[in-house]
């Protein structure tokens, strides 16, 4: 056990260790060799500081000092020197600490081990070193069911994912007693657009349609919404369900429409996605595009046969959404296709003009004037 420094938080030996000034550290240790084992009130020791900052020669000198504890942890986070070295990519320090019997699987206060830290940050060489020492590659986080492979996949660390899989990490480990809210490594890679990681996971047998609960979103939902067309194509080529529905009934097409990803919309439709699929309240992709005023998307959906007459439970058509939100160009485009839509009513008797009149912007005024002048919309329905 390191001895604490009493009321003094900043100690000369800690400052020398943080800065990596070896000669200064030697001077202090010559004066009092026991200072190597002194811990600040938060548990930080000189070797902890040097390991974090990557000062190999300082660490090498400290490990030979009397009373040194290479496994001394901070009081709040319970992180040890090897945690810090692994998290910051200091390979040689990790090797040295292991030689002097640092605990390679010591968890911190969040159950994070040195392997977990290295995997999250993408240090594949350190990951391999720790695996070779027998580190637990399936260690689970306390906030769910995430393992090192989840973190590596989410951050796009292909090399780490490879090493974990080669060592026997489970590609779909989230299925082993998962807590219903744990995304799969593939789900995380798809969400972030990490194509090569997603490709590797699929090659190793990852389930392309496994959803995250409770949202019920599958990998293709995330890739489509975030604009990752290469990943969307990869998922489709590996039999992802292009019409998968999440909790509220949204399909990948609807989410791509929401974010105006025309290229992904085209790709999904080319592979059989339903252009008129409805979410739980009857909204279609065309409703969404009209609500957002995405004219290019509206045109694409219409070209693919989307029905401008599609209605929600409230009998609201795309034209109602466009008018209510003051999207003049969208209103023009929709009425060019079906002029009679200018006079349609919702279940609450709202016409497009009524809805445009609720707005207070110049664009709402432009829509209202257009409906009156070009389509003789009734001021008193």
Automatic annotation (TrEMBL):
PROSITE patterns: ANK_REP_REGION, ANK_REPEAT. Keywords: ANK repeat, Repeat. ANK repeats lie at residues 77-109, 110-142, 144-176, 181-213, 215-247, 248-280, 281-313, 314-340. Gene3D superfamilies: Ankyrin repeat-containing domain (1.25.40.20). The keyword Repeat applies. The keyword Repeat applies. PANTHER family: ANKYRIN REPEAT CONTAINING (PTHR24173), ANKYRIN REPEAT DOMAIN-CONTAINING PROTEIN 16 (PTHR24173:SF74). This is Uncharacterized protein.
